[in-house]
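Field reference: sequence -> structure
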Amino acid sequence: MMMQLQETSAQKNSLFNHMNRFIGAVNNMDQTVMLPSMLRDVPLEEDRDMSSMKSDEDEGDMYSYYQLLKGIRRDIEWGVRFADERRKESMKISRMDSFASTSSSASSSQSSEEEEEDEEEDEDLQKQFQYHLTGLQGVLSKLTQHANSLTKRYKQEIGIAGWGQ
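Structure field:
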């Protein structure tokens, strides 16, 4: 039993938990916001937690951000179709390049220099993964906060700010 508690607290910062918290916050937002159209033309600036969401091109209303948060949830749950298509295309190109380099160097043996490069490349991949994982966890945390802020703000707009807390 003690081991499960330690694992649970150690896992609280896992990517899986960050995604679950975000999806839960967006689900809560989606269940709370019964009339999304009420969010149209409500500026983000009025809420200091949400003012960081506005970009230069963005209209900056809560409705567009509501739609954005739901879209990100959908991408997490179902995957990003266009990204998958691009990845498949780059994999085809990579395989063709790999085949060409393999056939041109088939007669030469792999040197210790090449092995060192492979080890460095593996280390680099691990560093890249950790960098992107940390970034993704940070973004998911911010998006979770924004979904919670949008939900709270919607409740204030319709006059039920103290309900369900």
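Note: The helical segments are 2-11, 15-32, 62-78, 81-104, 112-158.
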